[in-house]
Amino acid sequence: MKDYDVLVIGAGTAGLNAYRQAKAQGKTAALIDGGPLGTTCARVGCMPSKLLISAANANHAVKKARMFGIETADPVVNDEAVLKRVRFERDRFVGFVMEGIDNIPEEHLIREYAEFIDDHTVQLSGGRKLSAKTFVLAVGSRPRHVPILDGAEDLVLSSDHIFEIEKIPERVAVFGPGVIGLELGQALSRLGADVRLFGRSGSIGGIRDPEIRDYATKAFAEEFYTDTKATIHSVRKEGGKAIINYDHKEKGRIEESFDFILTASGRVSNTDRLKLENTSIVLSHRKVPAYSNSTMQCGDSHFFIAGDANDEIPLLHEASDEGKIAGKNAATFPKVDPGHRRTQLGIVFSDPEIASIGQSYESFDELVIGRVSFEGQGRSRVMGKNKGLMHLYAEKGDRRLRGAQIFGPSAEHLGHLIAWTVQQGLTVDQILEMPFYHPVIEEGLRTALQDLQKELDQV
């Protein structure tokens, strides 16, 4: 049995950063991963999805050119060319990640799966046993199983498989209006598929602000069928199609057939495959290890967790930061220090885009909101992208900008500007002293700041 200072289980974004941090501290460390390498983001997440979205938006832009007086013929979607580019560029991004993995010494990258025997020992799928003083759990996540879809199982695809399809389907049902379902559902719709987007809880795109959530839900429903509180009675396979029996918002209970179903109902941590019951680790109510998000330590134990495995914020930049913190603290254990955490920033690459920054709507004791609508905002109307709302958040008695929710044009860029100002602890008055050019979408941010300033002056 071989001994290490630190064993990192999982060689994704979080695991790679944890391993590098442990090595930087002069510790003996190894990575264990029996699955496909290349990180979730590069293989099946952010990069291939954005490639598909870009193709879809290009097709949509040609159709929309007529509003500017540009007469165009209806564009033709070449499925093979679209999907070929998605896979080619996807593989290129994966290749860049693999270059970094290839630089890891062969003896430090163990291509097997691991299960815990006790607090300090794992058994590999090949039979060997390894021990370590500390462990970093960075095993990532997998798509959540939706039992009602079992009746058409071989026609159900997750985001882990959708980029391997050979052509854009005629009809698609999307289960889950979260980030993945919304992005891919809209992309498939704009590439010619007839899409039905189903949810249960009423949420969409991770939007927490109820006014913006209702606005966004209506906006997407104008483009493709969207029901965020759907009643699905049954799903079965018949004649090579998926048959869904559901309550249509206008037609009542109906049955419709689909070429396939995209399941995007969230992801679950892979920690349940580690046999953590053989250790002393304490699990949270979500059946994943309870941990500190400042140190990534599980309780006061020698276990640390990072990335999607913690079932918290499945974002690449968060996974990277968490891996660094977990790896360093695993190497210096029992000395454990809080790591640097950034202002929360989440972006959905739908159209309009969605951005969530800093404190969320429901986290305030006495919330003060500054509002702007993009419907009348100058530059947005010029570009024909005048749809959306932005809310800026502050706490009563405090003039600092604390957070924001955006559904609108250029939300990915506005979100960054707001996140930077929130992290710097700037007040609304200080931000309004910054330069604003004309005519730009950022003037909408200024309008919302002015509204927030007025609201703060009145409380």
UniProtKB/TrEMBL annotation:
This is Dihydrolipoyl dehydrogenase. Gene3D superfamilies: 3.30.390.30, FAD/NAD(P)-binding domain. GO terms for molecular function: dihydrolipoyl dehydrogenase (NADH) activity. InterPro entries: FAD/NAD-bd_sf (IPR036188), FAD/NAD-binding_dom (IPR023753), FAD/NAD-linked_Rdtase_dimer_sf (IPR016156), Pyr_nuc-diS_OxRdtase (IPR001100), Pyr_nucl-diS_OxRdtase_dimer (IPR004099). The keyword Ubl conjugation does not apply. Residues 4-323 form the FAD/NAD(P)-binding domain. Signal peptide: none annotated. Its EC number is 1.8.1.4. Belongs to the class-I pyridine nucleotide-disulfide oxidoreductase family. The keyword Metal-binding does not apply. Its cofactor is FAD. Residues 347-448 form the Pyridine nucleotide-disulphide oxidoreductase dimerisation domain. NCBIfam families: PRK06292.1-1. It comes from Lentisphaera profundi. Keywords: FAD, Flavoprotein, Oxidoreductase.
